[in-house]
Write a structure and sequence with these properties.
The chain has 11 helices and 13 strands. The protein has 350 residues and is α/β, with parallel strands linked by helices. The chain folds into 2 domains: 225 residues, TIM Barrel (Alpha-Beta Barrel), CATH 3.20.20; 66 residues, Type Iii Antifreeze Protein Isoform Hplc 12 (Alpha-Beta Complex), CATH 3.90.1210. The strands form 3 sheets. An 8-stranded parallel sheet has the order 5-4-3-10-9-8-7-6.
């Protein structure tokens, strides 16, 4: 069982899915808005809130040309350099403590995704309980070693990674000291399409790597998340904002508070519905057995009269013999007068 220390949120298939609200850059460079996002996330019922810890300078260099410029006209961020995008999206490091403090006050787990070694050192100074490795960093083995060396649990997204790359990242984390690891199936497009989500990978990944597996979900809505839980996902991560209409770097594929509340409720309902392998009536179903069909006398019968299709029928309720005996009973004689509405039993025959 994956268990984030000091928090009452064990993560396994024996518990409801662990829901992470990803703030990312949806604070729109306002600490007040960031704290409001924390409060809305807690009210919606999430278990954790995640930040991203970087600066534009730790992510890239300040160039606005070639591969450093987003020219794809289908990108949400078309027309911006990588540097300018990260300047807009980053969460000031001095905000982390007040944001984490508000999370703790409200009983949700605060943690972050570090993007370089300096971010790990900074987050260690804030005593984060766990770490996230982003999809784009799952090939950064030195960063994974650095995070794993803290001994804290790691949640790692697997977007874009080949099976060999995931295996290398997992081995690196475990060899460097990570004892608690969760992998997240992820499609690193924004938004992601359901057709490219490939959720059937979730149980396969669990079997291959022997760890809990969840979903970092960039699709619109909650359908993919509910389906993931049905396939055994124990963690769901979803971007979160107060209102998509307010804009923000990730707003277009983020959930609003009412939607997040529904996600929490419906993924829990999906988990509850999984239950166990079971045949036969449940305890609560047993009282419904009486409403099954069974064999009844539907016309008054005299002693010695034979059962016929006119006087014997399979009807509700279920107090008589099972309908499977119908053909066996046709032509049999009754041993006493029988009133219409009598359930058929073997002692009426002969």
């Amino acid at each position: 069982m994956f268990d984030i220390k000091t928090y009452k949120f064990p993560i396994s298939r024996n518990y409801p899915p662990f829901i992470i609200a990803e703030m990312s850059g949806n604070h729109n460079q306002s600490l007040e808005r960031a704290l409001s996002i924390v409060e809305a996330a807690a009210k919606a019922g999430v278990h954790a809130l995640k930040l991203q810890t970087y600066t534009a300078d730790t992510m890239t260099i300040d160039l606005s040309e070639r591969e450093f410029f987003i020219s794809d006209d289908k990108s949400l961020w078309q027309g911006k350099s990588l540097y300018k995008l990260y300047q807009e999206a980053y969460t000031p490091w001095e905000w982390h403590k007040p944001i984490f403090d508000r999370c703790r006050e409200l009983g949700i787990v605060p943690f972050s995704t570090p993007f370089d070694a300096t971010a790990v050192d900074f987050l260690e100074s804030l005593d984060v309980p766990c770490y996230k490795i982003a999809s784009f960093e799952n090939v950064d083995l030195p960063l994974i070693r650095k995070v794993a060396s803290t001994g804290k649990p790691i949640i790692m997204s697997t977007g874009m990674a080949t099976l060999a790359e995931i295996d290398e990242a997992v081995r690196t984390a475990r060899e460097a000291g990570c004892k608690e690891l969760i992998l997240l199936k992820c499609t690193s497009t924004y938004p992601a399409s359901p057709e490219e989500s490939n959720l059937l990978t979730i149980p396969h990944m669990r079997e291959l790597f022997g760890c809990e597996v969840g979903l970092s979900d960039h699709t619109l809505g909650i359908g993919a998340a509910v389906a993931a839980v049905a396939l055994g996902a124990t963690v769901i991560e979803k971007h979160f904002t107060l209102s998509r209409a307010d804009g923000g770097v990730d707003a277009a594929f983020s959930l609003e508070p009412d939607e997040m509340k529904i996600l929490v409720e419906e993924t829990k309902r999906a988990w509850q519905a999984l239950g166990k392998i079971n045949y036969g009536p449940t305890e609560k179903e047993k009282k419904s057995l009486v409403f099954r069909r069974s064999l009844y006398v539907v016309k008054d019968m005299a002693a010695g009269e034979e059962f016929t299709p006119e006087n014997l029928r399979a009807i509700r309720p279920g107090l008589g013999l099972a309908p499977k005996y119908y053909n066996e009973l046709i032509g049999k004689k009754v041993n006493r007068p029988i009133m219409r509405g009598t359930p058929v039993s073997w002692d009426l025959i002969g």
